[in-house]
C-alpha cells in the first residue's frame, strides 16, 4: 500500500537499458531505498512506477543514472507525477507487448565476479569456459531473433539444470534473466581436434590443458571465440610465428597479441593510464600500444612496427588458457588471406586445413561473425579504428533535428564496409564487414544487411550510397532502391566523412555550417575526379569544396596505392629538377614507363590524395618497399618514425594559392626542403616529423581562414589519415586555440568504417528538405 506522505511518479529511463540487468538493478535499488511500485520494459526504454516520500524519489532517480549496471548507458531519466496507486513492495513486471528491441547489446568481456568464480575450486563453475552473468558474456553473437530470450539465441539447445534455473529466476541473483547462463552440468562443452581438422576426433581429457601444452610446444591452433575463430601460436616462438605467416600467406602485416595481465603487458609495451583503462573496458578491444625496444617477442611478429595490437583475455576460455601459459599468444583472425573471419565449425574444419594443427572449439553456435574491435588513444581520447566485437551493435541518439526524418539504410563504401540504419532520431552503425573486393565479403555484406534489417525490424524509406557508381555497395544500393521503389541518395565521400563526425559529436541539424578537414586515400569528388585531401564548408545537406591538396598523377591507377614510388616520382617531377634529387631513388624500377604514362595521360588519373602523399614521403625516406604487402604499411612506418623524433620546429612549407574560389596547397616547397635536409644528412626521423608538422600547419591555417571568412561554427576532422596520431595531435594543437568546437571521431571510426553514419545523416536531412 502507498503510505501517507508518499508521492507517486512514472519514471522513464532511456538509453541502453534493456538486456543489461537494468530491471533487477532497479528492483534492488528500490528495496534499498524503500520504494514501492514496479519496473518493466516498454518499447525501447524502462518504465518505473515509484511511490515514496519526495526525498527518497529524488535519491532513487539520481541513483538510476549514477549507479547503473556496467553495461547500461543511461541517456535520460524522465519523471512525471502519477495518481496514487496500490503496491505491495516492489516488483519486476512483465514487459509490455511490442517490446522487441530489448537486449540486443554488444558481447561483453568476462566480469570480475565471473573471473573469480572460474578460479574458485569451491565454485560449481570452477574452470568452466562458458561462465557468464548479466554483466558479461555473449550477447549479439548469439542472438538470432527478438525478443531477446534464450529461445531466440543459439543457447536454446541447452536446457537449464535446476541450479541454473533457480539463479535465472531469482531477481537477487546476478544471473537473473541472463539468457546465456550455463554451467558444466547443462551448458556448452569444449573439444580439441588435432590433425587435419575435418577428419579429427576430439581428444580425451581436458581440452584447455591439452591446448595450452601444444601451444607451448610450438603448435598453431584455431580457437573458437565469441564472434569467430582466431589462429593462435606462441608469440615468442619465431619458428611458430614464421610458419603461421607462411601458411596464411601474410608476409609482414602485424599480428595481434593476447596477454595474460598487466605484468605480462608491461614487458612488451609502454602503457599509459588511459590505454590500460581502455584495454580493461567491457568491450576489451585490441589496443595499439607503443612497443618496448627489448622484448621476448618473435622478430617476425610485427616487423618494423613501433606499435603492437594487444588485447586482454575476454572470455573464460581465454582466461583459463592464458593462466596456463607464461607467454603472450598471437591471436589473429582465422581466415584465408583476404577472406572474412571464419565463424562456423564446418568452415573451420575445412577452411583452415593446412593452416592450423588443430581446432579448440565448442558446441555453442555463433549467430554472426564479429571481428575484434581495434582502437588507440590519440589526442586525449580513445579512438575506435574498427567497430566489432564488444562495440556493435550500439544504437545512438542522433543530434537534435533528426527525429522527424525518414528511416534510412546507408551502405557505406568499398573498404572497411559497414552499414547504418536510422529511424526516429536514432542510428545503428553495424560492425565491421570487411573490404568488398572479395566475393566472400560481398556475400557477407549482403547477409549482414538482411540480418540487421530483420533483427531490428527496420523499414527503410530511402537508401544512401557513395557517389562512386562502381562501388559494389553503391551498385547494391541502387538495386535495392529500384526493387523497393525507394529514393536513392548519393552522398559525396568526404562530405559523408565530415557528416559522420558531426553526427557523433551531437551537431544539431540547425547548428550552422562547419569547416571540415577530410583526409584519406581516395574518394570520388563531385567533379568526377579523385579527391583525398579536402577542406569543405558544409552542413548536413550541402557541401562546398574550399581547398585541396594539389593533384598529382597516380600512374597505374590503383597500382599507385600499392607501389608508393610511383607517387613519389610524380611529386618530385612536379617539384624540382632531377639534379637536385638524391641519386638512385628509382634504380631498378620502371620509372621511364611511369613518366610516359603520366605524360600521355594513360591510366594516370590526377588525385588530391593525402594518403598517397604520406606514402610518397615514406618512399623518399626508404620506409616503403617497391610493393606494399598491406594497406597503410608505408604510412604507419612514417608515423612511427615521426613519433620517435624530437619535437619538430615549424615544419616544412607548403605554397597556398587561390583560383576560382578554390584554395590549393602545393607541396612542392615541402619536397624541396625535405630533400635539402636529406642531402645535408638530416635523420629520416626529423624529416618525417617536419613533414607532419608542416602539413598540419598548412591545413590548419587554411581551415581557420575559411572558418573566419564564412562564419563557420565548428571544425570537423575525419577520414582515414586522421587515424595518424602525430598528425591529429598537431592539428588539434593548432585548431583548439580558435575556440571553435572540434568535432573529431572517437566512437565511430574516422576511416571508411564510419562512412555509412555520415551518409545516413546527409540523406535524412536532404529528405526532410532542410
Automatic annotation (TrEMBL):
Its EC number is 6.2.-.-. It is an enzyme of class 6 (ligase). Residues 8-94 form the Acylphosphatase-like domain. GO terms for molecular function: acylphosphatase activity; carboxyl- or carbamoyltransferase activity; double-stranded RNA binding; ligase activity; zinc ion binding. GO terms for biological process: protein maturation. It catalyses: C-terminal L-cysteinyl-[HypE protein] + carbamoyl phosphate + ATP + H2O = C-terminal S-carboxamide-L-cysteinyl-[HypE protein] + AMP + phosphate + diphosphate + H(+); an acyl phosphate + H2O = a carboxylate + phosphate + H(+). Keywords: Hydrolase, Ligase, Metal-binding, Transferase, Zinc, Zinc-finger. Gene3D superfamilies: 3.30.110.120, 3.30.420.360, 3.30.420.40, 3.90.870.50. Pathway: Protein modification; [NiFe] hydrogenase maturation. Residues 205-390 form the YrdC-like domain. PANTHER family: CARBAMOYLTRANSFERASE, CARBAMOYLTRANSFERASE HYPF. Involved in the maturation of [NiFe] hydrogenases. Along with HypE, it catalyzes the synthesis of the CN ligands of the active site iron of [NiFe]-hydrogenases. HypF functions as a carbamoyl transferase using carbamoylphosphate as a substrate and transferring the carboxamido moiety in an ATP-dependent reaction to the thiolate of the C-terminal cysteine of HypE yielding a protein-S-carboxamide. This is Carbamoyltransferase HypF. It comes from Ancylobacter novellus. The lineage of its organism: Bacteria, Pseudomonadati, Pseudomonadota, Alphaproteobacteria, Hyphomicrobiales. The gene is hypF.
Amino acid at each position: 500500500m502507498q503510505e501517507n506522505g508518499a508521492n507517486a511518479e512514472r519514471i522513464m529511463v532511456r538509453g541502453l537499458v534493456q538486456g543489461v540487468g537494468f530491471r533487477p538493478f532497479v528492483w534492488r535499488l528500490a528495496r534499498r531505498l524503500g520504494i514501492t511500485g514496479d519496473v518493466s520494459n516498454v518499447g525501447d526504454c524502462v518504465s518505473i512506477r515509484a511511490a515514496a516520500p519526495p526525498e527518497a524519489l529524488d535519491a532513487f532517480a539520481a541513483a538510476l543514472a549514477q549507479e547503473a549496471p556496467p553495461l547500461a548507458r543511461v541517456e535520460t531519466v524522465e519523471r512525471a507525477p502519477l495518481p496514487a496507486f496500490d503496491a505491495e513492495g516492489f516488483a519486476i513486471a512483465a514487459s509490455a507487448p511490442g517490446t522487441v528491441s530489448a537486449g540486443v547489446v554488444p558481447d561483453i568481456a568476462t566480469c570480475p565476479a565471473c573471473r573469480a568464480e572460474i578460479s574458485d575450486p569451491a565454485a560449481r563453475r570452477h574452470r568452466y569456459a562458458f561462465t557468464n552473468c548479466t554483466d558479461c558474456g555473449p550477447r549479439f553473437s548469439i542472438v538470432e531473433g527478438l525478443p531477446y530470450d534464450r529461445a531466440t539465441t543459439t543457447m536454446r539447445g541447452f536446457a537449464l539444470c535446476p541450479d541454473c534455473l533457480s539463479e535465472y529466476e531469482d531477481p537477487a541473483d546476478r544471473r537473473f534473466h541472463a539468457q546465456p547462463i550455463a554451467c558444466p552440468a547443462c551448458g556448452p562443452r569444449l573439444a580439441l581436434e588435432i590433425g587435419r581438422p575435418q577428419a579429427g576426433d576430439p581428444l580425451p581429457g581436458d581440452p584447455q590443458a591439452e591446448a595450452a601444452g601444444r601451444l607451448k610446444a610450438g603448435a598453431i591452433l584455431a580457437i573458437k571465440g565469441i564472434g569467430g575463430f582466431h589462429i593462435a601460436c606462441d608469440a615468442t616462438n619465431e619458428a611458430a610465428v614464421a610458419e603461421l605467416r607462411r601458411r596464411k600467406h601474410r608476409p609482414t602485416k602485424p599480428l595481434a597479441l593476447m596477454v595474460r595481465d598487466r605484468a605480462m603487458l608491461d614487458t612488451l609495451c609502454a602503457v599509459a593510464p588511459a590505454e590500460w583503462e581502455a584495454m580493461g573496458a567491457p568491450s576489451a578491444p585490441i589496443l595499439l600500444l607503443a612497443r618496448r625496444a627489448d622484448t621476448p617477442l618473435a622478430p617476425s611478429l610485427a616487423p618494423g612496427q613501433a606499435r603492437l595490437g594487444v588485447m586482454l583475455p575476454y572470455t573464460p576460455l581465454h582466461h583459463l588458457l592464458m593462466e596456463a601459459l607464461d607467454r603472450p599468444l598471437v591471436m589473429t583472425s582465422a581466415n584465408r588471406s583476404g577472406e572474412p573471419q571464419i565463424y562456423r565449425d564446418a568452415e573451420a574444419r575445412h577452411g583452415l586445413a593446412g593452416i592450423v594443427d588443430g581446432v579448440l572449439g565448442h558446441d555453442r553456435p555463433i549467430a554472426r561473425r564479429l571481428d575484434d574491435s581495434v582502437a588507440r588513444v590519440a589526442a586525449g581520447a580513445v579512438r575506435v579504428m574498427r567497430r566489432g566485437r564488444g562495440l556493435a551493435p550500439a544504437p545512438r541518439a542522433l543530434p537534435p533535428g533528426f527525429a522527424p526524418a525518414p528511416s534510412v539504410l546507408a551502405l557505406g563504401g568499398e573498404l572497411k564496409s559497414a552499414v547504418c540504419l536510422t529511424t526516429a532520431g536514432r542510428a545503428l552503425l553495424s560492425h565491421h564487414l570487411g573490404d568488398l573486393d572479395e566475393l566472400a565479403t560481398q556475400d557477407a555484406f549482403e547477409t549482414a544487411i538482411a540480418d540487421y534489417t530483420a533483427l531490428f525490424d527496420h523499414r527503410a524509406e530511402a537508401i544512401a550510397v557513395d557517389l562512386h557508381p562502381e562501388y559494389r555497395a553503391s551498385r547494391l544500393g541502387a538495386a535495392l532502391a529500384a526493387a523497393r521503389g525507394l529514393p536513392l541518395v548519393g552522398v559525396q565521400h568526404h562530405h559523408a566523412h565530415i557528416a559522420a563526425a558531426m553526427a557523433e559529436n551531437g551537431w544539431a541539424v540547425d547548428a550552422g555550417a562547419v569547416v571540415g578537414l577530410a583526409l584519406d586515400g581516395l574518394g570520388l569528388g563531385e567533379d568526377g575526379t579523385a579527391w583525398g585531401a579536402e577542406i569543405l564548408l558544409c552542413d548536413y545537406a550541402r557541401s562546398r569544396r574550399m581547398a585541396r591538396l594539389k593533384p598529382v598523377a597516380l600512374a597505374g591507377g590503383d597500382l599507385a596505392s600499392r607501389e608508393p614510388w610511383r607517387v613519389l616520382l610524380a611529386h618530385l617531377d612536379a617539384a624540382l629538377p632531377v639534379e637536385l634529387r638524391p641519386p638512385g631513388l628509382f634504380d631498378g624500377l620502371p620509372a621511364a614507363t611511369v613518366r610516359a604514362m603520366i605524360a600521355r595521360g594513360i591510366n594516370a588519373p590526377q588525385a588530391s590524395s593525402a594518403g598517397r602523399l604520406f606514402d610518397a614521403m615514406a618512399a623518399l625516406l626508404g620506409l616503403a618497399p617497391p610493393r606494399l604487402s598491406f594497406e597503410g604499411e608505408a604510412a604507419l612506418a612514417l608515423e612511427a618514425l615521426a613519433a620517435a623524433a624530437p619535437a619538430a620546429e615549424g615544419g616544412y612549407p607548403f605554397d597556398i594559392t587561390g583560383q576560382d574560389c578554390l584554395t590549393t596547397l602545393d607541396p612542392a616547397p615541402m619536397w624541396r626542403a625535405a630533400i635539402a635536409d636529406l642531402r645535408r644528412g638530416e635523420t629520416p626521423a626529423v624529416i618525417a616529423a617536419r613533414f607532419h608538422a608542416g602539413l598540419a600547419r598548412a591545413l590548419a591555417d587554411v581551415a581557420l581562414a575559411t572558418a573566419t571568412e564564412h562564419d563557420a561554427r565548428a571544425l570537423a576532422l575525419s577520414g582515414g589519415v586522421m587515424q595518424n596520431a602525430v598528425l591529429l595531435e598537431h592539428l588539434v594543437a593548432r585548431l583548439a586555440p580558435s575556440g571553435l568546437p572540434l568535432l573529431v571521431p572517437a566512437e565511430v571510426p574516422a576511416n571508411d568504417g564510419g562512412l555509412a553514419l555520415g551518409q545516413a545523416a546527409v540523406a535524412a536531412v536532404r529528405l526532410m528538405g532542410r
